[in-house]
Amino acid sequence: MNGIFYTNTQTNIPGWVNDLHEGQPLGYAYETDSHFVHIYGKNYGFNVISVGLTAIEGKNGTLNDWVSRVFGAKDIQPLQLNIGDSVENIWRPSLFYSQDIHDALKVSPFEQRSAEQALRVLIEKLDELLLYIEPDQNGLRAYGHKSRELLILACTEVENLWTSIFKNSGIPPQNNRMYTTQDYVKLLPKACLNEFEITFKNYDGLRKFVPFSQWNVAQPTQSLNWYDAYNKTKHDRNASFNEATLENVLDAISANIAMFCAKFSPFGLINDNNALSSLINQHFQISLNGSNPSTYYIPKIALPADTRTDLLIYDCYKQKHNVAWNILPLVL
Questions:
Q1: What's the rounded Cα separation, in Å, for the pair 51 and 301?
Q2: Which structural domain, as residue segments, surrounds residue 142?
Q3: Distance CA 301, CA 323 (A)
């Protein structure tokens, strides 16, 4: 069962304020055997899908006509996945609650804790480096042994996150020996890695970091400037010491944050009450830029036989109407 997504331009629900669509401008809809279902969503930050704002009404006419009449739906488009489907190891919006994330992605809590510890080490080392180098236009070009050390550490951790997704998904390297960027780049469209945008909050004028924005199949290593720099300075420090710049380090740290979010979700990083969350909230703002709602996971609900048929809004999760996710294997 496929659904649709669209832009809400009006709110026409009895007993509700008439401007709900302004704060929740995205809509996702599908139909059950008896009802039409609409779920509101945001279009900023992590584009949270608000399961607590689920609208239902007994079926009459077509789904497209219903969303147009009630929500003023514009630019109606199909979702890529069936309703209730998720892809193992790949987070997408709608997965907000911790248990939902773990269930839908088959997250190993032990692997996640290990990744959190590794990311914490990287950020602490970056914090120390920034005590000595200011990331202005001059400082971004600075390099030295400490920046080279951190660039290598950060890039090997990105490789570890890439590799873990492939191994967890049972996908062998295409050369049957070892994974390379020719394998890793296949994650770009599936995990929507180019959507993740990282802002360093404490430095005015510093660009936003979108570490995977230029990644492409034609040049899977060279198109990642920071990763190409890591390869060069790792294998030949004498010739490529100057590749270990602070700017490449910032890109590599941003890549780690993006990969963590793509694999485990961003919400543990910003909402958990622990040392890593404190570091993240102190230094970074993470958001999705140019995100594609057609790739989102939309929860499937099962309504009781005696469900009201009039138009209403309720919390489908609180009422436990959401059914278990149908977890699909990652296919590249």
A1: 10
A2: 99-288
A3: 6
Same domain, 38 and 83: yes
Are residue 79 and residue 179 in the same domain, yes or no?
no
C-alpha separations of 104 from 2, 13, 226, 325 in Å: 18, 31, 32, 6
Confidence of residue 94 (pLDDT cuts 50, 70, 90): confident
Burial of 160 (0-12, 13-18, 19+ CB in 10 A): middle
Say yes or no: 162 and 281 in one domain. Answer: yes
| Mean pLDDT taken over the chain | 96
Distance CA 323, CA 83 (A): 11
222 and 136, same domain (yes or no): yes
Cα–Cα distances (Å) from 246 to 148, 199, 209, in that order, read 9, 15, 13
For the chain, the residue count is 332
Contacts with 93 (C-beta within 8 Å, 6 or more apart), sequence order:
41, 46, 47, 48, 49, 288, 291, 293, 296, 297
- 108 and 219 share one domain: yes
Domain count within the chain: 2
